[in-house]
Amino acid sequence: MARAPLLQLSGISLTFGGNPVFDELDLVVQPGDRVALVGRNGSGKSTLMKVMAGLVEPDKGLRVVPPGVVVGYMEQDPDLSGFETLGDYAASRLPVGEEYKVPMVAEGLKFNPDTPVATASGGERRRAALAKLMAEAPELMLLDEPTNHLDIQAIEWLEEELKNTRTAFVLISHDRAFLRALTKATLWIDRGQIRRREAGFDGFEEWRETVWAEEDEARHKLDRKIKAEAKWAVEGISARRKRNQGRVRALAALREERGSQIRRQGTAALELESGPQSGKKVIEAKGLVKIFGGKTIVDGFDLRVLRGDRIAFVGPNGVGKTTLLKMLTGELAPDEGSVSLGTNLEIAVFDQARARLDPNATLWDSLTNDPLMAVSGSSDQVMVRGNPKHVVAYLKDFLFDERQARAPVRSLSGGEKARLLLAKLMAQPSNLLILDEPTNDLDVETLDLLQDILGDYDGTVLLVSHDRDFIDRIATATVALEGNGHATAYPGGWSDYAAQRQASGGVVLEKPSSPTYAPQSKPAAKKAAEGLSFTEKKRLEALPGVIAKLEAEINKLSDFISDPEMFTKEPVKFRKASEGMAERQATLAAAEEEWLLLEEKNA
Length: 603
Fold this sequence. Notes:
The protein is α/β, with parallel strands linked by helices.
C-alpha cells in the first residue's frame, strides 16, 4: 500500500519586491526521499525551503502536511533569545528524558553545549541549530547549507549520520562530495520552475546541460518559424487579408510565446589578472613554532612554496589554519623559526570573516571607497585591473542588478557577499592569492568558474577550505594540521592526503622539507618500487578525464571560431578563442604523451 506524501505543495506562486520567485510550482516529498535542492544563487532555494517549512506564506497555492508528520527546518540565523546556553536551545523541544541526545550530536558537530549564547559565534549558533534538528529527528528534515562552518571531520560525521537515518531530507549544499554521497533525487530550481530527476546529484551537470540544449534547440526552431511567418505576413497579407487573419493571430501568439520565455541568467564574469611574475621561491618557512592561546599551532614546521604551487591547508576548526597562513605571509610573527618571502610579491586576500565588507555600506560605496579600487576624482568609477570602469557595470559582471547597487551589504545573501568579495579581490593584479574559505555559500556554477580561473592563474595559491571536492580539483599539495603542533605536507589534494594517511594506519607522518616530496609509508614505498608511485597512479587515473575535458573544450572553441562571420563581428573574441584553442591543443598533446609514458611504466 502506497504511503501518503510527507509534504505536498500545489500551485505555489510567490512574489518578492514585485519580482516573481515561483509561479504555479508543484512539489511532493515522499517518505524516504533524499533530495538535493539545487539552483543558482538567488534562484529561490532558501525561500522555497521556508515555504516547505511553513515559515513563508505563498501568494497563492496550497501546502499540505499529513497529521502527525513533523517537518524540521535548520535555521540559517536561529533565534537563541531566552536561552542561556547552546545546549539549552538545542534541547528545547526534546521530550523529557531525551536531553542526552544533544551532547551526542554536539560531539560529532564539534561544539560545546555549555557555551553561553551571549558569547557564541555565528558558526557555533548554526551548529547548535543543526544539532537541535538532528536530535529531534523529525519525519522530514530541511537542511539549508548544513556544512557551512563545519570542518571536514564534522562534515564526514554528519554525512555518515544522514546515510544511516531513516528520516527523509531535502538538502541545499554547495559541497559536491556531500551531495553525491547522500542524495537519490534532485530538485532543480531554474527561473521560477522546478524539475525533478530520480537520481542523485552525481550527473546533475550533464542533465542540466541536456535540458538547456533542448531548450536552445526549441527556441531556435521557434525563432525560425516566427521569421518565416513574419516574412509571409509582410509579402502576402494584402492579397489574403480576409482568409488569413487566423494565421496573423497565430504569428502574434508565437511572438508572445517567445517574449514570455525567460532568458537564463549568465555566469559571473570572474577574471584574475596576474601581476608581475614573482621569484621562483615564494615562501620559505623554517622551524616555525607558534603557541596561540595556550594551544600549539605548529612545532618545528618547514615549508617551501614555489611559484605556481596550489597548496591547501586542512584540519579541524580552531586548529590554527588561518594563523599559519598569517605567519606564512608575514602578517603574524612566529614564536620561533623564520619566514622568508620571495621577491616581487603582490598579495590578494579573500578572508573568511569578510572583514573587507562593511555591512552598513552600500555595494556602490563598498567598491568606490575601497582604497585599492578608488579612482581619483570620480564617485562612480572603480579601478579594475588598471582600467577605470563604471561601478554598476562592474557589479553586473558579478550578477548584481542595478537596484542592488544602492542596497546595504547586510541585505545580501551569503553567496552574494562572497561574490562581492570576489569582485574586490579580482579588481587588483596579484601573483599570490590567499583564499580563506572561499567556497562558503557559492553556487555550483560559480565554484566551477572559480576553479577554471584558478587553473589558468599564473601565480601561487594558498587555500583553506573544507570542501573536499574543491580541494581535489585545485590543490597540488595539501598541508594537514592535525593538532598538537603536527602539520604535515602531502602531494595532491584531499583524496591523496586521506589515502596516504590511511596507508600509514592513521599515524601522523614525518614532515618533508617541501610539499613536492611527501614521505611514503612502507606499503606505498613497496608499491612504488614495483611500478608506479602513489602520485603517478593517481595521475594516471586522472589523465583520461583531463584529456576528455580538453577535447571537449577544443571542440567547443572549434565550433565557435568556425562561424565565418565571427572574425568580422567579434575580432577580440575570435582572437582569444583561437589562442585558447592553440593552448589547449598543446596541453592535450602533453597530457596524451604523459599518459603513454605512465601506461608504459605501469605495464
